[in-house]
Specification:
single chain; mainly alpha; 2 domains; elongated
Length: 209
């Protein structure tokens, strides 16, 4: 039997269907919230049968969780933040300011993808399953931010009177979805302007004078 090399494989077709479903679901979640998003609407937007959505993700909570995971880790080469290029650049940075800027660039890239979804999840934490997504995500975010702070503290030090726990708290607030959405989505800041501002602000708040 002759195989057409240009014809997508079953795996490639499944991956493309999953991508379309996640694209459609993310738009629905952002525009209509968790409660207002229906699996049938996601299916229609992705041009597939609703059974395909349930077969692929089983539940709406799983679909939201998959959207969140893709937004954090990226789509082409999904990696946890500590394995993404910005993290290595932060570890190799020659100064505290450069380390902060590399970290903020990476966080900004993730926020660009995930901030509006974060708003959806935080607004739906009355649902225990959605609350579990939020709790797990925040725990991972705190752990990663604390790891970055400990590296910066070990290499370059923190401001007098500032310990790693308090510095992590500051970084979590400044690098969170609320600040990003307020400045970029609501106030219209360009993304790169936000990154530059956040890097300067965080460096001033965390690093020695």
């Amino acid at each position: 039997m002759t195989v057409n090399p240009d014809r997508p494989t079953r795996r490639q077709r499944a991956q493309e269907t999953r991508r379309r479903l996640l694209d459609a679901a993310q738009v629905r979640f952002v525009e209509h919230g968790f409660a207002g998003t229906r699996m049938a609407d996601v299916a229609a937007d992705a041009s597939v049968a609703v059974q395909t959505v349930y077969f692929t993700f089983h539940t709406k909570v799983n679909l939201l969780d998959a959207c969140m995971a893709r937004a954090v880790m990226g789509e082409d080469e999904p990696l946890p933040p500590q394995e993404q290029p910005f993290w290595a650049a932060m570890l190799e940075a020659p100064s505290g300011a450069a380390a902060v800027h590399h970290f903020v660039e990476g966080v900004g890239a993730i926020l660009r993808r995930v901030a509006q979804l974060d708003q959806v999840v935080s607004a739906a934490t009355h649902d225990p399953d959605v609350a579990a997504i939020w709790t797990r995500g925040e725990a991972l975010r705190r752990s990663g931010f604390r790891e970055a702070v400990e590296h910066i503290n070990g290499r370059f030090g923190l401001r007098d009177g500032l310990d790693a726990e308090r510095a992590t708290d500051i970084l979590l607030v400044m690098g969170g979805h609320a600040v990003y959405c307020a400045l970029v989505h609501e106030s219209g800041w360009p993304h790169d302007d936000f990154v530059d501002w956040l890097a300067d602000a965080v460096a001033e708040m965390l690093l020695p004078g």
